[in-house]
TrEMBL record:
Might take part in the signal recognition particle (SRP) pathway. This is inferred from the conservation of its genetic proximity to ftsY/ffh. May be a regulatory protein. One of its GO terms (molecular function) is DNA binding. It comes from the Bacteria. Keywords: DNA-binding. PANTHER family: UPF0122 PROTEIN CBO2450/CLC_2298, UPF0122 PROTEIN YLXM. Belongs to the UPF0122 family. The keyword tRNA processing does not apply. InterPro entries: RNA_pol_sigma_r3/r4-like (IPR013324), UPF0122 (IPR007394), UPF0122_fam_protein (IPR054831), WH-like_DNA-bd_sf (IPR036388). This is UPF0122 protein QQM35_07460. Gene3D superfamilies: Winged helix-like DNA-binding domain superfamily/Winged helix DNA-binding domain.
Length: 110
């Protein structure tokens, strides 16, 4: 797996976590098998007795859909921003001034 594929897989896993409740059962199944369980398109097609092309099309469309949800709702972006702040906070647990500044940054994200 290339570095770009790995980055896309990680991103899709996060997007799936945030937006799976907005997807149909079939969309959830396909994305979960492809990105989380690392099934091939052929394995998914065999599992659901559909063509490999149908699986590919569904995964592509569903990926576009969760990217659209992210563009509109920004849950993953907010998660990433909070994670960066929390990581920085861990470095300054003994510095109340820095901690207060990071707490303010977190409050500003809301």
């Amino acid at each position: 797996m290339s570095q770009n594929d790995l980055i896309k897989t990680i991103r899709m896993n996060y997007l799936f976590d945030f937006y799976q409740s907005l997807l149909t059962k079939k969309q959830r199944n396909y994305l979960e098998l492809f990105y989380l369980q690392d099934y091939s398109l052929s394995e998914i097609a065999d599992t659901f007795d559909v063509s490999r092309q149908a699986v590919y099309d569904n995964i592509r469309r569903t990926g576009d859909l969760v990217e659209d949800y992210e563009a509109k709702l920004g849950l993953y972006k907010s998660f990433e921003q909070r994670k960066l702040i929390y990581d920085e906070m861990k470095k300054y647990t003994n510095d109340p001034h820095k901690m207060n500044a990071y707490i303010q940054q977190l409050e500003d994200l809301e």
